[in-house]
Every structure is written in C-alpha cells, then in structure tokens.
Design goal:
By secondary structure, the chain is of the alpha/beta class. Helix content is 40%, strand content 20%. The protein is built from six helices and seven strands; from the N terminus they run βαβααβαβββαβα. The longest helix has 18 residues. The mean pLDDT is 96.
Length: 200
C-alpha cells in the first residue's frame, strides 16, 4: 500500500459519521504503513458540476480536436482519473441520502466513467481498466437497510467500481444511526472494531 485516495461526500463535514469512520481507518493505515501517501478529496467542500452535454462532448472528442473550452472541461476529469489511477487503495466514506448516494459522489463517478480511459467496450462487454486496486467503503445509514431492497447503494457502488476495474471492494456498515443515541454509539463502535481488526 503506497498511496491511498480518501473520498468524502458528506454534507456535514467533520461532524459526519462516515468521515469519522474514514478518519479512524486512515489513522490505522498510517500507523500500520508509516510511509503511505494519503490523498484526500472532499466532494461536498469542493463539489464537481453535474454532467452535461458540453462536458460529455468534450470527453468523447479526440484530444487533438478539442476546443479550449473542451480542453478545460475534459481537463478536470483527466485530473480526477489520474488521481484515482495513482492510488493503490480507495477509501470511500459513503453516507446514505434518501436511499441513494450523495449527488456529489454521483458527479464524481460521472467524471471517472471515461470510455477508452477507465473502461473499454469489447465484443464480450465492457472491461474496466483501473485494475489492481482495493476499495474500502464505509457506509453509514440512519436506518437499517443492508440486505433489503432499499439498499440501492451497495450494488450500485460495487457495480460502478467494478465497471472501471476495481473489483476488490470491502464494505463496512454502520446502520441505525438515527434510531437512538444508544444504537448510534453501538453501530459506530462495531464498525470501529471491524476497522481495527482489518488486515492492512
């Protein structure tokens, strides 16, 4: 483990439970691997624009044919792709908002899905190109959704990461955080115990 990319998308900043867990995991990683490089991206503090037609057109236009405006639009995505390409491990703090992922994270995913760069189409289907990486997803929810049809996050995030080549994905859940103070404490402690027991 040489480089870790930590991605936060909670609108609650330092007060978010998902960030609390990601902070604990990063501390454990740096303690276990003192030479590791940590790269942090806060998608709520520095949000990306939602994908639009102009940006998508810039993505699919050959670099040598792009206008200056298209170069700027594609350039931001290029930087994000390089950032995750350079990472060995991705730590994704994932709060649940209205049964789904934060819109800020969706915009980030839209910037990563680049045909010919992070995935390619073949005769047998799409193939992800960002291989050899591990993702650790810290999923926090106000209610209990794991294993139910209301958990739209787990499959979507796993499918998207696999689509771009990241198939080694581990989920750690802290649920029922809005049920009661006691349940919140219990769930966060249980997630913390899993983090401390992880092999890094």
């Amino acid at each position: 483990m040489k480089t870790v990319l930590s991605i936060n998308s909670s609108i609650f900043g330092d007060n978010s439970q998902s960030r609390q867990l990601s902070k604990q995991l990063l501390e454990r990683i740096t303690k276990t691997n003192p030479s590791v490089k940590i790269v942090e991206r806060d998608l709520a503090k520095n949000p990306l624009p939602h994908l639009n037609g102009e940006q998508f057109s810039a993505f699919i236009t050959p670099p040598e044919q792009r206008t200056d405006a298209q170069k700027a639009l594609a350039g931001q995505s290029d930087d994000l792709v390089k950032e995750i390409s350079d990472a060995d491990t991705v730590v994704l703090a994932l709060p649940m908002y209205n049964f789904g992922i934060p819109s800020q994270l969706k915009s980030y995913f839209d910037n990563l899905a680049r045909a010919g760069i992070t995935f390619k189409y073949t005769a047998t289907g799409p193939v992800g190109l960002l291989t050899g990486k591990k993702a650790i997803v810290l999923a926090t929810r106000g209610g209990f959704y794991f294993g139910t049809d209301k958990d739209t996050q787990t499959k979507y995030v796993k499918d998207f990461l696999g689509f771009i080549g990241i198939t080694d994905v581990e989920f750690i859940y802290a649920e029922g955080l809005a049920i009661s103070p006691e349940q919140k404490t219990k769930s966060l402690e249980q997630a913390g115990e899993i983090i401390e027991a992880m092999s890094l």
